[in-house]
Write a structure and sequence with these properties.
The structure holds two protein chains of two kinds. By secondary structure, chain A is mostly beta strands. In chain A, about 0% of the residues lie in helices and about 45% in strands. In chain A, strands 2, 4, 5, 6, 9, 10 and 11 form a seven-stranded mixed beta sheet that branches. A four-stranded antiparallel beta sheet of chain A has the order 1-3-8-7, with no helix packed on it. Chain A starts with a strand and ends with a strand. By secondary structure, chain B is an all-beta fold. Chain B has no helices and twelve strands. Chain B has strands spanning about 5, 10-15, 20, 25, 30-40, 45-50, 55-60, 60-65, 75, 85-95, 100-105, 110-114. In chain B, the strands form three sheets. In chain B, strands 2, 5, 6, 10, 11 and 12 form a six-stranded mixed beta sheet that branches. A four-stranded antiparallel beta sheet of chain B has the order 3-9-8-7, with no helix packed on it. In chain B, strands 1-4 form a two-stranded antiparallel sheet. The chains are: A mainly beta, B mainly beta. The interface of A and B includes residues 31, 41 and 107 of A.
């Protein structure tokens, strides 16, 4: 089945560690996104990518990094510079960058700092 | 800049009640409008959308009409069920294509009691 796969579903990070969240899509979508979700704050855009080997910072990029080496993959690294990383992370994609196109989401990954 | 405002929750209703979740937006031009639903611990799923003024999106008994004159896209359902309990997000896509994805409201938590 086509879709967006995020892994792991649950991840625990120790202070000072970098962790990487995986996002893979087999929808042949051009654009991919990472959002962070905190209770009561809705979704905030971390990074986005329109094409392979290109990505842009979103509203809250500090402490995060991404890569887009393949069309189907857009991993997110949460670095030790991110001071409050505990949140629900959502990966998304869309066929083309167009305001009417639907954005599809993965199932999300929970990151907790221990 | 663009923004989406939703009524704050939680909204608690009895089964078979009529539902309205208000959504208003601020944007230049004619954005596309979306409603997404998020069930506990999951990603967001598209519920319905409308891409131009006076369009009505509908799905699973939910409806919303794109009202340009009031800059609104209120979500309605005639008879809610317990299974409709979820968080609902209103979102807009920028006219002409927004490379940075959608702008989301903060979400409205809906609780349906049997």
């Amino acid at each position: 089945d086509g879709g967006i796969t995020q892994s792991p579903k649950y991840l625990f990070r120790k202070e000072g560690q970098n962790v990487t969240l995986s996002c893979e899509q087999n929808l042949n979508h051009d654009a991919m996104y990472w959002y962070r979700q905190d209770p009561g704050q809705g979704l905030r855009l971390i990074y986005y990518s329109q094409i392979v080997n290109d990505f842009q910072k979103g509203d809250i990029a500090e402490g995060y990094s991404v890569s887009r080496e393949k069309k189907e993959s857009f991993p997110l690294t949460v670095t030790s510079a991110q001071k409050n990383p505990t949140a629900f992370y959502l990966c998304a994609s869309t066929l083309q960058v167009f305001s009417g196109n639907t954005i599809y989401f993965g199932e999300g990954s929970w990151l907790t700092v221990v | 800049g663009d923004s989406v405002t939703q009524m704050e929750g939680p909204v608690t209703l009895s089964e078979e009640a009529f539902l309205t979740i208000n959504c208003t937006y601020t944007a230049t031009g004619y954005p596309s409008l979306f409603w997404y639903v998020q069930y506990p611990g999951e990603g967001l799923q598209l519920l319905l959308k409308a891409t131009k003024a006076d369009d009505k999106g509908s799905n699973k008994g939910f409806e919303a009409t794109y009202r340009k004159e009031t800059t609104s896209f209120h979500l309605e359902k005639g008879s809610v069920q317990v299974s409709d309990s979820a968080v609902y997000f209103c979102a807009l896509g920028r006219p002409g294509g927004g490379a940075d994805g959608l702008t989301f409201g903060k979400g409205t938590h809906l609780i349906i009691q049997p």
